[in-house]
Each structure stands twice: as C-alpha cells, then as structure tokens.
Amino acid sequence: MYLASAAATASKGGIGGSYLIFLLLIVAMIVWMFTQQSRQQKQKRQMQSSLSVGDRVVTIGGVIGTIRAVEERGFQVEVAEGVILSVTKSAIGGRYQGDASSS
How many angstroms from the chain centroid is the CA of residue 15? Predict the structure, then answer.
C-alpha cells in the first residue's frame, strides 16, 4: 500500500515538493532562531546601557548588588557594605527584581 502511494506521488512530482516544503520549514526555523537571538541581544544591550547609579542588579554569576559608579566599560557594584566589585557591562544579567526587605 505504501509503495503504491509513493509511486503515485512520484509520478505526479510530489516527492520533490515534499522535500522543498521540508527545506523551507528548516530555513524558516533557522531564520526565526537568529531573529530571536538578535532581539534578545539588543534588549540586553539596551538594558545595560540604561543602568544608572543606585540600580539593583544581578550578575550572570548570580551576585546581587547596587551600582555605585558607572564606568566606560563597566560598573562598580556594591555587594555588601564596603565591598565593591568592578564588573564589565556584559557581566550584568539584569535588574534585580527580588523584594526590597532581603537586603
């Protein structure tokens, strides 16, 4: 039964169309993935450039702190009273959204 339907499809030129649809689907998925990735990178760069002194942030390593100074290539982040870390902009994962009573 399967061979008969495959032979009938081949005689109509349907197998080539099946490959074309499959190929287009793969290309569409790849384009979508790259678009999503570039959108996320753009959002992260915008967030990093909008940070200012006093913002609570979390690094990609999970360290939570408050920005005390903005530098050309990074930030001075206070993680505890008197403990200040120098971090690059790319090391900032995002703004910290935890509750304020945990500091």
Answer: 38
**Domain edges within the chain:** 1-50, 52-103
According to CATH, what is the number of the domain 52-103?
2.30.30
Spell out where the chain has E strands.
56-59, 64-70, 74-80, 83-88, 92-95
- The DSSP code for 7 is H
Q: Parallel, antiparallel, or unpaired for β 74-80 and 83-88? A: antiparallel
pLDDT, tens digit, 9 for 90 and up, residues 38-92: 999 999 989 888 889 999 999 999 999 999 999 988 999 999 999 999 999 989 9
Q: Rounded to whole angstroms, how far apart are CA atoms 19 and 85?
A: 55
* pTM for this predicted structure: 0.61
Burial bucket for residue 89 (CB in 10 Å: 0-12, 13-18, 19+): middle
pLDDT band with cut points at 50, 70 and 90 for residue 3:
very low
